[in-house]
From TrEMBL:
Name this protein carries in UniProt: Pyridoxal phosphate-dependent aminotransferase
UniProt keyword Lipoprotein, yes or no: no
Keyword annotations of the record: Aminotransferase, Pyridoxal phosphate, Transferase
Aminotransferase class I/classII large domain span: 26-380
Signal peptide, first to last residue: none
Species, as recorded: Streptomyces coerulescens
PANTHER family: FI04487P
InterPro entries recorded: Aminotransferase_I/II_large, Kynurenine-oxoglutarate_AT, PyrdxlP-dep_Trfase, PyrdxlP-dep_Trfase_major, PyrdxlP-dep_Trfase_small
EC numbers, comma separated: 2.6.1.-
CC cofactor: pyridoxal 5'-phosphate
MF terms (GO), sorted A to Z: transaminase activity
């Protein structure tokens, strides 16, 4: 393994899912639903396969039906208008969108500011692109993790090329507010920065939180690469269909990288995701309400088990503090948890450069069936 990647090893998700399997534990580690997405969308995939749509290389930017559906979705939900031919790109999941965007937009030595804790592929992709990551740490404040805007401003230097934003935020469950996003947008415009914004949990926001795409703020549409995912929005993480919307020049750049990573993304699933994006609002409402009930169920169980539970405003993750349990090392805690309680979780420290800042935090996924969450809560309470 070369020097750029040496520090990354095996992703925590693979390690912890393997541990769940080998110990027969309930896997609340890796974030994937244990119930597949809508039946009619699966049927659409079967039909596409059977009718021979997408069984050979689809067009590089994605099939026109899906690009149009993505553009319609951005218009319908957010009033953002994108040309399906020049401003939309289909990728192999959001993971490839992140990689292709960073590989296309960074020069070696460019600094990328990312919110810490950050989704693990950000660090690896910045490294593969020869960039330097500059983490800005979200800190606990009144029950959730918040961004310090002064710290963000202070992190910008003459070498900063790009802000890598994620809202709703994995793993903290924070949803950036309108005021925070407006400040990020102002900073980007003032310092002429590009913004890559990972909005894969756009449909999972709860209570009074609202998902506001960064691209909707003044001066942002032309400098922002927005990323979405069918894995997250429709519970098909195995299909690996994601997308990018942005201005033509940026989409062309990302596509230039994408064409040499995967060339194209899986054909038949693209047709099915086009139908998923056109589902009525009732699908998205039911999806959100189902996850909200699951959040509340797991949060109550974790609280009863003695964890400090941070408020999840978005995503399907709950971040906890293990110090009330008399523990302080999330790594050690997560490695022991399968034996101790038959449950797998993720130590948030893996998402930090400042590992000590993340040490006592542990993430649990609640995108699981009710009975699974109830059993996990029971085991944790008995621990
Ligand atoms: N970004 C974030 C914040 C995620 O949590 C995930 C999925 N775990 C991804 C990107 C990757 O999405 P996909 O499965 O579509 O590649
Ligand atoms: N995004 C998911 C999570 O945060 C997992 C994705 C993966 O395994 N790479 O748990």
């Amino acid at each position: 393994l070369n020097r750029r990647l040496a520090e990354f090893g095996t992703t925590i998700f693979a390690e912890m899912s393997a541990l769940a399997l080998s110990t027969g534990s309930i896997n609340l580690g890796q974030g994937f639903p244990d119930t597949d997405g809508p039946e009619e969308v699966r049927e659409a995939a079967v039909r596409a396969l059977r009718d021979g749509r997408g069984n050979q290389y689809p067009p590089g930017p994605g099939v026109p039906e899906l690009r149009t559906a993505i553009a319609v979705h951005q218009q319908r939900r957010y009033g953002l208008s994108y040309d399906p031919d020049t401003e939309v790109l289909v990728t192999a999941g959001a993971t490839e969108a992140i990689a292709a965007a960073l590989l296309a937009l960074l020069e070696p030595g460019d600094e990328v500011i990312a919110l810490e804790p950050y989704y693990d592929s950000y660090a690896a992709c910045i490294a593969m692109a020869g960039g330097t990551r500059v983490p800005v740490t979200l800190r606990p404040h009144e029950g959730s993790f918040r961004l310090d805007l002064d710290e963000l401003r202070a992190a910008v230097t003459d070498r900063t090329r790009l802000l890598l934003i994620n809202t709703p935020h994995n793993p903290t469950g924070t949803v950036l507010t309108r005021a925070e996003l407006a400040a990020i947008a102002e900073l980007a415009v003032e310092r002429d920065l590009l913004v890559v914004t990972d909005e894969v949990y756009e449909h999972l926001v709860f209570d009074d939180a609202e998902h506001l795409p960064l691209a909707t703020f003044p001066g942002m549409r032309e400098r922002t690469v927005t990323i979405g995912s069918a894995g997250k929005s429709f519970s098909f993480t195995g299909w690996k269909v994601g997308w990018v919307t942005s201005a033509p020049g940026l989409v062309t750049a990302v596509r230039s990288a994408k064409q040499f990573l995967t060339y194209v993304s899986s054909g038949p699933f693209q047709y099915a995701v086009a139908e998923a994006l056109a589902l009525p609002d009732s699908y998205f409402t039911a999806f959100r309400e189902d996850m909200l009930a699951k959040r509340d169920l797991l949060a109550a169980g974790l609280t009863e088990a003695g964890f400090e539970v941070f408020r999840t405003a978005g995503t399907y993750f709950i971040t906890t503090d293990i110090r009330p349990l008399g523990e302080s090392d999330g790594f050690a805690f997560c490695r022991a948890l399968p034996e101790r309680a038959g449950v797998v979780a993720i130590p948030n420290a893996v998402f930090y450069d400042h590992r000590e800042a993340g040490a006592p935090f542990v993430r649990f996924a609640f995108c699981k069936r009710t009975e699974v969450l109830e059993e996990a809560a029971k085991r944790l309470r008995a621990m």
